[in-house]
């Protein structure tokens, strides 16, 4: 994929195709590392896939026995010292979390994150929650939007324009942080799992090598996938 | 979440228009959004379709995403389903093609033959 926003579109689409009724997308920075996380309340990964979800030959696809989305995501993350975590529990859902050290010379651009979120909100029937920052702040919950709109569809041009504005406003600071050398948001929060090193990495410098411990498929008891009840 | 007031305003303004047409969509445009489609630019295609419909204030056509159908070399693929007509599938749909499909097929009712995928 040309940029990270296309990976985000792809992972959200996995959740939608699995029949999730609700998907929570989180976007945040930890210094110069960009994270995104997509959690869903779908059926979870079947055991054959959960063993190694980023293996392209393990897939729930029916047209052919190859699924490239997670494999490509892992390649993109790891080529700059980042990683992917896939957590799944049968009946509870899946959580895909990916870290991208953006100070790396080979870092792909963020891309159009707002477009990824807007097309996901409008193109799929599930509810989409978008949270930005660490700690996460909810900037959009399409379930709430649908409740307010009653019979008016999200796709109505006036609604679509409003959603586009909301998402552009939320995503703007994330993009500025990148453009301004990872200084505008400060060293926001601790990285969720250790490995990327402390503090922002100056652009162009090689960050500390992280062991790419991707594809954690077993959900720990204290950090289950799926969607917290308060969301 | 902010903007609840704005949503309510839109709801009140649009309600009357929906009552007039009974809330149904007369056409559905399905954009293949599998990994192959996304890599080929299907998300830009979807945005272009939505923009083309918005610019003409068309509110009774739904643009939705679907998974890969297996014709990856033809991506981005778009299927136009107008209620009482056979579905038409278009291949290699970029922004310019999306604009043509909305103008010629959805608005004027003439499928764009040279873009149709057989």
Q: Order of strands across the biggest sheet of chain B? A: 2-1-3-4
Derived structural class of chain B:
alpha+beta
Shape of chain B: globular
Number of helices, where a helix is a run of at least 4 consecutive DSSP H or I residues of chain B: 4
Strand content of chain B: 15-25%
H/E series of chain B: HEHHEEEH
Q: Largest contact between protein chains?
A: A-B, 44 and 39 residues
Q: If you average the pLDDT of chain A, what whole number results?
A: 83
Biggest sheet descriptor of chain B = 4 strands, mixed
Query: What's the pLDDT, averaged over the residues of chain B?
Result: 89
Strand content of chain A: 15-25%
- Cross-sheet strand order for the largest sheet of chain A: 3-4-2-1-5-6
- Head-to-tail CA distance between termini of chain B: 46 Å
Q: Label the CATH architecture of chain A.
A: 2-Layer Sandwich
Low-confidence stretches of chain A: 187-202, 207-212
Q: How many DSSP H or I helices of chain A?
A: 6
Percent in helix of chain B: 40-55%
Give a description of the structure.
- The complex is a heterodimer of chains A (231) and B (118).
- Chain A is of the alpha+beta class and 231 residues long.
- Chain A has a single domain (4-182), classed as 2-Layer Sandwich (Heat Shock Protein 90), CATH 3.30.565.10.
- In chain A, 30% of the residues lie in helices and 19% in strands.
- Chain A contains 6 helices and 6 strands.
- Chain A has helices spanning 4-17, 47-50, 69-78, 113-123, 142-149, 157-179, and strands at residues 22-30, 33-40, 83-89, 93-101, 127-132, 137-141.
- A 6-stranded mixed β-sheet of chain A has the order 3-4-2-1-5-6.
- In chain A, helix 1 runs antiparallel to helix 3, helix 1 packs parallel to helix 4 (113-123) and helix 4 (113-123) packs antiparallel against helix 6 (157-179).
- Chain A is globular, with a radius of gyration of 17 Å.
- The two termini of chain A are 30 Å apart.
- The model of chain A is unreliable at 187-202 and 207-212 (pLDDT under 50).
- In chain B, helix 3 (42-55) packs across helix 4 (95-107).
- Chain B has a 4-stranded mixed β-sheet, covered by helices on one side.
- Chain B has helices at residues 4-21, 35-40, 42-55, 95-107; strands at residues 27-32, 61-66, 78-82, 88-90.
- Chain B is globular, with a radius of gyration of 16 Å.
- With 118 residues, chain B is an alpha+beta fold.
- Chain B is built from 4 helices and 4 strands, in the order αβααβββα.
- Helices cover 43% and strands 17% of the residues of chain B.
- In chain B, a hairpin with a 5-residue loop joins strand 3 and strand 4 (88-90).
- Classes of the chains: A alpha+beta (231), B alpha+beta (118).
- The interface between A and B is large, with 44 and 39 residues.
